[in-house]
Every structure is written in structure tokens, then in C-alpha cells.
């Protein structure tokens, strides 16, 4: 470095060598002058002043030279660094572009609330203009094969600088990107053609079905597939003539479940019957029962052997807190109330649902019967349900003696395999509180007992090997396990302990006795006749 070289070139007095050399010559001349002009103090003073000036100028020149060299090196380093950043940015852009124009990508799907195709599509728009909720949560995502799409549509792109060296390529597939697709009478007709013949054809059938499931058949029209700072997404409108009435349903995490629309001005808007049909389709299950009131709907149903309850109310969180007074559902009247998004064009009602499993109490009662049964013996019940692994439920008891040392637990916990145990003896009953509905396997470790089981008073088949599988519903379930153990009569094995001669003698005596009895009966008959 220049600063190190500068330090090494300094003399003992701290003056550069070039300056020291010049100073020595001047001092020699000064000595000669003093010899020729003894006593001339004025001349010596002038010469000394000249020497100091020379030293200062040479030192200044040397320092300036060093500064110039240091600045030159620094500038060279900065130039090299800037070139490296520029080269890296160019390489990154090249790599991003290579990724952007090929392969399969995941795209989020949004709906533009103005329901108008923009006059200039290839631009970034505010998230608040799009649903669901304007919160960057899409209705769903789809996979688009860009290799297939590129065969039909040319894209438009430009680079956006997000800061030093952070470039992102914005890419747009739209009728504004490829004029060949902008040949219809209206922009809506043109984007509809592009959507149905090019963009959706680059998706799987399963992803195409998502649009029908959420928006209805041929209702959604995506006017652009684009990549911006937040990634790939599809923006679209509804294929309805205004005014358009839209009802959106969200889950507890504010994910959009579906949007149904109508431009029927007679009602106006979406019918409650259509909403119920769509909600049941999304939830699945069967045996729906409804509790309906204004702005409050409760749906109870069964799915995969489990009972669920879904509550639907107007959406009131986030940005919708300001509009909850406008969102209403009137089941008795079969309609909804909306807020105005775009006057005479777009009207919106948002609802939110929460779903829970319906809990039920499970009762298990223990009885024993038979002369050999031990009423003080405790029996272990093994409950198995994989989906309950790691869960716990409160347990209460009836018929427990104060001095019973069995240690009946107050909490029933299913282990990592979904297995839980509790023990009961004759006359005791356990109540497991608020277990989820659905099936559960119960097996009793019954030893030599014969087990009979009733479920809600009805006898059911029980297997000693696997137990019994019961179905918990929204109502309480009562099980009674009865173990039978009777006193055993003497068996063949016990008779073997009697001496064989005694057994034989007994048999012979019986035979002789029967013959004597028979002869006497004959004699009596002869005398009578």
C-alpha cells in the first residue's frame, strides 16, 4: 500500500529523503556565504528562510504525489467492485430470465373487484383492488406449464430494480403482450379467447376444475398471467354483465373458499338456496341439519363417520370491520345484503365460517355375574383411535368406593399410537367427557370371563380378540360390559382320579341290580293274570 511505502521512506527526523537531500545542499551553500560575508546576519536569515520554504514545497509535492496515487488505486478498486456488481446483476437477470420463460410455475388466483379488464394490462396494480380480501391470500393456486403457453403466446417483460443489484424481471402474458390475441370486438372477448384457448390449456384438468368449483362454470376469465415482485399470479374478472352481485365465503384462517355471483336484478343477487348448495359441496358430508337466523347459520352434518358443526356469520375482521354493517344474510327471505364496491357494477357480501367436531360423552359401565365372579376384581379397558393420539379428556366416575385403591385417573390420555386405558370393577361407571364423534375401538382385558356388551341398551356382538367398534354421535353413548363366570361342575379330568376297579365294580353292581328288578316284575305279572 502507498501509506506503508511512505512510512518506510521517512528519515530519523521524519522528513522524506528527497527533502533532506535538498536541505543539505542549501546548508552547505549557507556555510560558504558565512565565510565570505562574516558578520552578515541578515544574509544568513534570508538564506534560512529560503531553505525552509524549499523544504515545505518539496514535502507538499511529495505528499500530493502520494495522495494522488492512493486515490487512483481506490478509484480502481471501486471501479472493479462496481463492474463485479454489474456483472453479477447481469448474470442473475440472465438466470432469472431462463427460469421465467420455461418450466412449470405455481400461480395464485385473484379476482378484480371492479370487474373490468384494465385498459393497460401490463402494469402493477394495488392489492386492495383484488379479492379475496385484498390481503395477498389467493382463492387457490394452479400450475401453469410455460413451455406449452410459450407455443401460443408471446410474453412481454422488463426489469425492475429493487435496490442495489436486486433486479426482478416482470413478465406478462396478455393481449397487450401479443397483439395476435387482441383481435375481437371487445377487450373482454379478446381476453376470454386468450384465457380459454391458451392459458387454461396449459393447466391440468384438475386445476381447470378449481375455477368451476369456486366461481361456477365458465364464470372466471383470467386476463393476465404475470410475475411481479410477489411471484406469479393470475388476475381475472367474472363473465357477467353488470351489475354483478358476489357472495364470498372464508374459513377461519381467512382463506377464500368460494365466490358465487349473479346479475339477477329481480332478487337482487345470489339466492340463499344456491349458497347452501355451494357450502354443502365445499364441506362435503351428508345428513345436513340447519339452525337458521339472520346473520347466523349453524350447519350440523356427518363426514367420514364424524359429526361436525359449521357456523356462518358476516365477516367482521381485518379490513371488513368497516363493512360488517353492510354484510347480511337473510335465510327466511332467501337473499343477502351487499356493500357497494363499484357503483352500478360490483356489489359484495363476505361471510366467514368456523367448523368444529361435535363432542359427545362416552359412558362405560362394568358389571360381573356368576357364582365364580369376583366383584372386587378390576378390569382394564383399552380404547384405540389413531386420530386421537396425544389428546386428553376429563373422566368422572360413579359407584367408586371411598376405600378403593385402584387409582382411577381423572384424565384419559391417548398415547402416540392413539391408545388409552382405564380400569373399572363391578358397579363402577366412567364418563369420558366430550370425545370427538366418530368410531373408536374398545377392548376389555377380561381374563376367563364371558363378556356381553350393550350399546345404548341394545346387545351388540363382542370379540374377545378385537373387542367392539362403536360409533360416537352427537348424542351420548352408553356401554355396559357384563362379565359372566359361573362355578364349574366336576369335569372328566376329576373322575380320572377314582380307582379303575372302583369304577368297574360300580358299573357291575348297577347291571346286576337292573336284571334282578326286571325278573321280579315278570313274576308279579304272572301272578296277576
TrEMBL record:
Keyword Methyltransferase annotated: no
Residue span(s) of domain DUF7601: 361-483
Stretches assigned to coiled coil: none
Ranges for region Disordered: 1-101
Chain ranges passing through the membrane: 498-518
Key words, A-Z: Membrane, Transmembrane, Transmembrane helix
Polar residues composition bias: residue spans: 1-12, 20-30, 39-54
Entries under Pfam families matching the protein: DUF7601
InterPro entries, per database record: DUF7601
Biased composition (Basic and acidic residues): 55-76, 89-98
Gene3D superfamilies: Collagen-binding surface protein Cna, B-type domain
This protein's record includes keyword Ion transport: no
Protein name: DUF7601 domain-containing protein
Amino acid at each position: 500500500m502507498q501509506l506503508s511505502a511512505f512510512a518506510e521512506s521517512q528519515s530519523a527526523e521524519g522528513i522524506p529523503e528527497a527533502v533532506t537531500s535538498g536541505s543539505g545542499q542549501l546548508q552547505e551553500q549557507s556555510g560558504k556565504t558565512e565565510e565570505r560575508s562574516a558578520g552578515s546576519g541578515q544574509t544568513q536569515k534570508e538564506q534560512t528562510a529560503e531553505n525552509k520554504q524549499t523544504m515545505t514545497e518539496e514535502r507538499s509535492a511529495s505528499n500530493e504525489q502520494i495522495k494522488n496515487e492512493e486515490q487512483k488505486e481506490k478509484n480502481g478498486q471501486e471501479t472493479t467492485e462496481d463492474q463485479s456488481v454489474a456483472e453479477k446483476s447481469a448474470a442473475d437477470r440472465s438466470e432469472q430470465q431462463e427460469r421465467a420463460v420455461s418450466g412449470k410455475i405455481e400461480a395464485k388466483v385473484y379476482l378484480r373487484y371492479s370487474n373490468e379488464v384494465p385498459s393497460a394490462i401490463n402494469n402493477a396494480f394495488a392489492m386492495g383492488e383484488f379479492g379475496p380480501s385484498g390481503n395477498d391470500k389467493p382463492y387457490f393456486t394452479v400450475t401453469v406449464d410455460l413451455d406449452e403457453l410459450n407455443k401460443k403466446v408471446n410474453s412481454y417483460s422488463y426489469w425492475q430494480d429493487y435496490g442495489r443489484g436486486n433486479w426482478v424481471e416482470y413478465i406478462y402474458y396478455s393481449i397487450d403482450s401479443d397483439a395476435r390475441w387482441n383481435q375481437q370486438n371487445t377487450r373482454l372477448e379478446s381476453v376470454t379467447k386468450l384465457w380459454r384457448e391458451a392459458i387454461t390449456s396449459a393447466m391440468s384438468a384438475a386445476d381447470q376444475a378449481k375455477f368451476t368449483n369456486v366461481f361456477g362454470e365458465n364464470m372466471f376469465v383470467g386476463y393476465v398471467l404475470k410475475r411481479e415482485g410477489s411471484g406469479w399470479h393470475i388476475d381475472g374478472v367474472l363473465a357477467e354483465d353488470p351489475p354483478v352481485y358476489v357472495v364470498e365465503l372464508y374459513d377461519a384462517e381467512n382463506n377464500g373458499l368460494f365466490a358465487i355471483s349473479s346479475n339477477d336484478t329481480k332478487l337482487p343477487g345470489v339466492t340463499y338456496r344456491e349458497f347452501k348448495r355451494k357450502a354443502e359441496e365445499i364441506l362435503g358430508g351428508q345428513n345436513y341439519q340447519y339452525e337458521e337466523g339472520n346473520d347466523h347459520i349453524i350447519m350440523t352434518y356427518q363426514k367420514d363417520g364424524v359429526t361436525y358443526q359449521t357456523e356462518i356469520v358476516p365477516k367482521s375482521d381485518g379490513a371488513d370491520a368497516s363493512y360488517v354493517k353492510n354484510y347480511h344474510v337473510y335465510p327466511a327471505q332467501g337473499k343477502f345484503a351487499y356493500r357497494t364496491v363499484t357503483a352500478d357494477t360490483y356489489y359484495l357480501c363476505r361471510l366467514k365460517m368456523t367448523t368444529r367436531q361435535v363432542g359427545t360423552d362416552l359412558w362405560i359401565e362394568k358389571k360381573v355375574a356368576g357364582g365364580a365372579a369376583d366383584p372386587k376384581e378390576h378390569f382394564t379397558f383399552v380404547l384405540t383411535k389413531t386420530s386421537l393420539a396425544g389428546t386428553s379428556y376429563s373422566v368422572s366416575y360413579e359407584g367408586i368406593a371411598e376405600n378403593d385403591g385402584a387409582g382411577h385417573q381423572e384424565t384419559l390420555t391417548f398415547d402416540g399410537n392413539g391408545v388409552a386405558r382405564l380400569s373399572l370393577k363391578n358397579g363402577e361407571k366412567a364418563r369420558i367427557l366430550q370425545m370427538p364423534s366418530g368410531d373408536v375401538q374398545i377392548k376389555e382385558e377380561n381374563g376367563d370371563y364371558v363378556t356381553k356388551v350393550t350399546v345404548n341398551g341394545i346387545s351388540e356382538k363382542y370379540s374377545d380378540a378385537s373387542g367392539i367398534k362403536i360409533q360416537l354421535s352427537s348424542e351420548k353413548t352408553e356401554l355396559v360390559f357384563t362379565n359372566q363366570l359361573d362355578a364349574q361342575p366336576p369335569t372328566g379330568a376329576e373322575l380320572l382320579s377314582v380307582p379303575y376297579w372302583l369304577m368297574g365294580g360300580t358299573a357291575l353292581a348297577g347291571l346286576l341290580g337292573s336284571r334282578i328288578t326286571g325278573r321280579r316284575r315278570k313274576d308279579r305279572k304272572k301272578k296277576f293274570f
